[in-house]
């Protein structure tokens, strides 16, 4: 099928032009590092939903055990099991990598080379919500496929490295995203998030975890992740503030010592002058 059967014209044009300006033109960035944009054609969303439903019916009829997306989701399916691995890898390389290269270069956005793609299901007799977590990815694409639902907002709570994954959330890091069918949200895998309960209906989402083996290898030898970890950045700023304070204190101490020394010399000079004058007067 032609890409126009999958993607909206605005998305295709932006990626094909492949400039920072063209990509940014279709994006909204409600908080730093989280981008939202219209992506999929409604017909393709319906077609993929139907394919997932047929696959699950076939698995059930054949009494096969379906591979679930991850340890947190009890419903949904891994799309590579549908025979879509090659197509999804091409999709990552041709459409997601150009965007990630622009917005996430510090976490391997320009060197994505593998993926894990799956569909998740939320609603009655499905998963209801998803707990607070980070993804096993460098960059995550999350696209709502439908159907009719309410609730299920995606909440974000700041980007963290492994050392700070359980650190406190700052107020400015809090954001809730409401899903819209066909619309995608893109974020770093280390951006902590979760899904609020889907209160009614059925919500299904396509997720693509994009990974970079180059970044993962380099990360083994890094100690400072302040280029992207919010807590590392906060600690670095705090160290800089303390360093400035310490420098000011040292400068003040030096200036104070110099002033005391100068005053002592002036007093000594005045005392010597007075003694000399006094002795001269007596003589």
Automatic annotation (TrEMBL):
Pfam families: OGFOD2-like
GO molecular function: dioxygenase activity; iron ion binding; L-ascorbic acid binding; oxidoreductase activity, acting on paired donors, with incorporation or reduction of molecular oxygen
Cofactor(s) of this protein: L-ascorbate
Domain Fe2OG dioxygenase: 113-212
SMART domains: P4Hc
Gene3D superfamilies the record matches: q2cbj1_9rhob like domain
Keywords: Dioxygenase, Iron, Metal-binding, Oxidoreductase, Vitamin C
Coiled-coil blocks: none
PANTHER family according to UniProt: 2-OXOGLUTARATE AND IRON-DEPENDENT OXYGENASE DOMAIN-CONTAINING PROTEIN 2
Protein name stated in the entry: Fe2OG dioxygenase domain-containing protein
Organism: Triticum aestivum
């Amino acid at each position: 099928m032609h890409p126009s059967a999958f993607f909206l014209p605005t998305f295709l044009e932006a990626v094909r032009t492949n400039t920072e300006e063209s990509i940014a033109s279709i994006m909204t960035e409600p908080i730093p590092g989280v981008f939202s944009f219209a992506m999929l054609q409604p017909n393709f969303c319906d077609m993929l939903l139907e394919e997932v439903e047929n696959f699950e019916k076939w698995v059930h009829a054949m009494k096969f055990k379906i591979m679930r997306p991850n340890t947190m989701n009890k419903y949904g399916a891994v799309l590579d099991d549908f025979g879509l691995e090659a197509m999804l890898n091409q999709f990552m390389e041709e459409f997601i990598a150009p965007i990630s290269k622009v917005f996430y270069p510090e976490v391997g956005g320009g060197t994505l080379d593998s993926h894990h793609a799956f569909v998740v299901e939320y609603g009655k007799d499905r998963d209801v919500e998803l707990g607070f977590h980070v993804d096993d990815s460098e960059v995550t694409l999350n696209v709502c496929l439908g159907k009719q639902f309410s609730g299920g907002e995606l909440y974000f709570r700041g980007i963290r490295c492994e050392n700070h994954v359980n650190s406190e959330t700052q107020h400015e890091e809090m954001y809730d995203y409401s899903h819209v069918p066909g619309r995608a949200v893109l974020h770093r895998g280390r951006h902590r998030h979760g899904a609020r309960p889907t209160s009614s209906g059925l919500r299904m989402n396509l997720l693509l975890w994009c990974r970079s083996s180059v970044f993962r290898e380099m990360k083994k030898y890094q100690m400072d992740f302040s280029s992207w970890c919010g807590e590392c950045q906060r600690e670095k700023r705090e160290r800089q503030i303390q360093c400035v304070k310490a420098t000011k204190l040292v400068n003040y101490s030096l200036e104070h010592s110099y002033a005391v020394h100068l005053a002592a010399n002036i007093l000594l000079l005045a005392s010597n002058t007075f003694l000399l004058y006094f002795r001269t007067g007596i003589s």
